[in-house]
């Protein structure tokens, strides 16, 4: 009963983001402004847009609008615009956008989808690492699972998935099946030479990153299940990243 209640709560929290879409406009008359607008699929010179990207004569890209949390400029040398959705520019723009606008942004503009999904993955991975590092008896696993479920549904929404409660249950079931948390735990423990909080934090981090990446791949391929070999590669990479994250965290305390 508790699992059902937790799933319903998670579904309700993500439902709003799944139904909304953001608007983006590119201002400026330069060829680079037109090129950027075309790559994004953005409006041109629509000053009422929630996220406004204005290409200035100096070559800077100014970010503003009611959906932007960090209004400011991207220097010309940092734009490096090549039209790629996994390049540095989408990541920099997404970092400036308010949290509530990020999933609607990805839903409306695939150009930002990977950057938004990676942001969701690492944000939830860090949260689950801290939950693992300071466990609350009997509450750490439900909290981690709720974070992972929320992440999966938000990634689904970012890919334009229409989320009913039944569809949310199906998605979480498909993506959890065969995930192999025990096998992942063994991989992580081998890489983290100490036990206790460090191992628990690494497991929380790696499990969240691996599930997030598998979810992204699932939707990018049009609901095609991730193969066993690919899943093992995803887990191995996530385990190494978890080891490095915990090492950095431990070093800060020295």
Briefly note the structural class of the backbone. alpha/beta
> What is the overall pLDDT average?
82
Overall radius of gyration: 20 Å
Termini, distance in Å? Answer: 44 Å
What's the total number of strands?
5
**What characteristic shape results from the CA principal axes?**
globular
Can you tell me about this structure?
It contains eleven helices and five strands; from the N terminus they run H-E-H-E-E-E-E-H-H-H-H-H-H-H-H-H. It has a five-stranded mixed β-sheet with strand order 2-1-3-4-5. Helix 6 runs antiparallel to helix 7 (140-158) and helix 6 (113-133) runs antiparallel to helix 10. It is globular and about 55 Å long. The model has no long low-confidence stretch (mean pLDDT 82). The chain has two domains: 2-17 and 114-252, no CATH class; 23-108, no CATH class. It is of the alpha/beta class.
């Amino acid at each position: 009963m508790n699992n059902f209640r937790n799933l319903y709560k998670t579904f309700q929290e993500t439902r709003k983001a799944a139904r909304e879409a953001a608007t983006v406009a590119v201002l400026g008359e330069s060829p680079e402004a037109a090129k950027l607008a075309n790559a994004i699929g953005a409006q041109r010179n629509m000053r009422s847009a929630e996220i406004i990207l204005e290409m200035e004569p100096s070559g800077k890209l100014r970010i503003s609008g009611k959906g932007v949390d960090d209004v400011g400029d991207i220097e010309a040398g940092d734009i490096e615009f090549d039209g790629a959705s996994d390049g540095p520019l989408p990541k920099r723009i997404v970092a400036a956008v308010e949290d509530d606008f990020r999933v609607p942004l990805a839903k409306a503009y695939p150009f930002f989808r990977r950057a938004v999904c990676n942001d969701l993955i690492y944000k939830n991975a860090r949260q689950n690492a801290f939950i693992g590092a300071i466990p609350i008896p009997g509450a750490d696993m439900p909290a981690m699972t709720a974070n992972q479920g929320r992440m999966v549904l938000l990634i689904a929404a970012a890919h334009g998935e229409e989320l009913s409660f039944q569809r949310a249950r199906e998605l979480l079931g498909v993506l959890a099946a065969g995930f192999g948390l025990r096998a992942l735990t063994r991989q992580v423990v081998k890489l983290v030479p100490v036990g206790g909080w460090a191992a628990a934090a690494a497991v929380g981090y790696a499990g969240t990153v691996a599930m997030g990446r598998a979810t992204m791949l699932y939707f990018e391929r049009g609901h095609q299940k991730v193969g066993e070999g690919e899943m093992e590669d995803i887990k191995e990479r996530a385990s190494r990243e978890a080891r490095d994250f915990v090492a950095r965290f431990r070093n800060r305390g020295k």
